[in-house]
Structure formats: C-alpha cells, structure tokens
Amino acid sequence: MARILVPLAQGCEELEAVTITDLLARAGFEVVTAGLDERPVKASRGMTLVPETTIERVMDEDFDMMVLPGGQPGATHLNEDPRIHQLLKRLNDKGRYTAAICAAPKVLADAGLLGGKRATGYPGTFDGMRPPEVTVVSDRVVRDGRVITSRGPGTAMDFALELIEVLAGKGKREQVESALVR
Predict the structure, then answer these.
(1) Is 102 among the catalytic positions?
(2) Mind listing the pLDDT tens digit for each residue in 7-32?
C-alpha cells in the first residue's frame, strides 16, 4: 500500500486538501496529513482542518508520494518552510512522486524539481519567476515523469484520480471514479 504525505499549511485551499485526501484514502492508500506546526489549520475559506501529525514528526519517515495542496497563503507558507523543500528533494532523489496543485507548483519550482519539465498551475503561479527550462501549459493535470501538477480547485478531482492511477494503475482509478458517479 502506498504511503502519501499531504502537508497542510495555514491558508491552504480546503477543497483541494479534502478532495485529495479523501480520494487517495478511497483508493486504500495510507494518507498522512501533517501541519507545519501543532495548531489546527484555518484554510483559505475559513474551514478548520486538523492534521494528524506535524511535519517535524514525519521528517525521517518514508513516503511514496508527497502532495501539496495550493491556496493562498497556504502555498506561500509551504514554500517558506525549508522542511518542505528538504522532503521534496529527498523524495525526488529516491525516485518517488511529488505533486502539487493550484499555487503549490511554485513550491516544486523553487525546490528545483521542475527543470526540463512540463507543468501547470493556477493562472499567474509562475509569473515573474519562470523556472529554468519549464514548459508551463494550461492543461488540467500534467504528469511529467514523477512530477504531477494541476490547475486549481476545479481540477482537484481529476488531479486526485491521476495520482491514484500513477500509484495503483488505471483499474484502481476506474474503481474509485465509478463509485463517485461522475
């Protein structure tokens, strides 16, 4: 069973965080939500999310994938936390998956994981930064090697289903998707 880390920062986009964790759990994966500190997370639209643990407590644990929800200022808080960059780089070095949606692909770029890749994000996410050799596209979900990016709240379900397919195959994706009555 795949083990997936979903860090939750103050101001994250709740629709993305909840959709990602819900669908990955429906697929039977072990999903670990971790706050940047001990506090409950007040999401971008005012919903309170309670992470299971903290980033500090999982720094030495092993994961098959790390998924970053977007939203503002959540994505900025993720990007400003050196532990997030450290975990992303470690997973990348081990050949594991990293994924981000909405404003969070900027975190992947700043961690140096988007060089030579295609990526997408919320409109304006990459403005003023243009990571080297990144081809920014407007597709709903982009998978380039072991990096998966997506546009925003409206693409959260497609994004989560893509993550399921990447980790467990098309059959598992179809099984989860059919139960959603899409």
Answers:
(1) yes
(2) 999 999 999 999 999 999 999 999 99
Instruction: Give yes or no for a contact between 59 and 85, defined as CB atoms under 8 angstroms apart.
Output: no
Selecting among 55, 91, 99, 102, the annotated active-site residue is: 102
Q: Which residues of 14-51 are buried (b: 16+ CB within 10 A; e: fewer)?
A: bbbbbbbbebbebbebebbbbbbeeeebebbeeeebeb
Rounded Cα distance between 155 and 107, Å, is 18
The model's pTM: 0.97
Strand-pair partners of 153: none
Nearest residue to 167 (alpha-carbon basis) of 70, 99, 105: 99
Exposed (0-12), middle (13-18) or buried (19+): which is 105, by Cβ within 10 Å? buried
